[in-house]
Amino acid sequence: MPIKINNDLPARAILENEHIFVMTETRALHQDIRPLKILILNLMPNKIETETQLLRCLSNTPLQIEVTLMQTSTHKAKNTSPEHLLNFYTTFEEIKTQQFDGLIITGAPVELLPFEEVEYWNELKEIMDWSKDNVFSTLHICWGAQAGLFHHYGIEKEALPKKLSGVFKVDILTEKSRLFHGMDDFLYVPQSRYTASRRDQIANHPDLRIMSESDEVGVHLVGDNHGRQFFIMGHHEYDRGSLAAEYARDVAKGINPEVPKNYFPNNNPENPPSARWHVYASTLFTNWLNYFVYQTTPYELKKLKEKTEI
To answer: For residue 281, what is the DSSP state?
Structure first.
């Protein structure tokens, strides 16, 4: 079933070429159904690439989804054209009187900065506070997860000894969680980060639970006790070539990066990379939409503030 997006969004042609059912606004108007309203706060520099990746992850479900793309107003994007942002993106000021079934907060290349020094930190805090009463369930991704854990629960981040880059196996600790329905007792996830949220603080917080982790990755996925907030360390949404592009970029900069682990066959960047994480990414996003958004969100979104327990 379809994702409802703007008729002219560049992702449309890419997704349709992959045989993903994308419904334009024009066609959706003729269906008598309330689509799930999903808001994506896109903090990544290349917004077109990230929005396409996330739309792909949201596509494998029998639900109609209406996606709203949002950018921060306190930061000027340098890697996406002003025309694209004007045509397809909104700001918090424009949507803060609305309610949404789900929210996705992406990562951002600012993890080495203290949270308070990030240009749009105050705006992001306002959005995260607003989400508690106006969004039913929120996915925080990578730096977005670290920011959410810090803001909502006071969980600090710490620098890793070196960049964590590659594709890693993580063990599922809460195997009965509906978020992992249909999976094995592990999953694979791409990682590309220099920092991590402190495991001891997460483990000791009464409102949080560690749902998956591994020795190499550390904490991978954290949930609150009600399925309203999830924090994912890593990039399930990444394309096959995302880590390769980051590696090539860092090589060109003279950073002398390590080759991403478990990614290029025989650890040779000349070989086309494998993509063993896609099935897990699709299942994870589908389960979130089905079990933690569609089956639990109130039909009338104005009732979100009633704090339904699940």
So the answer is: H
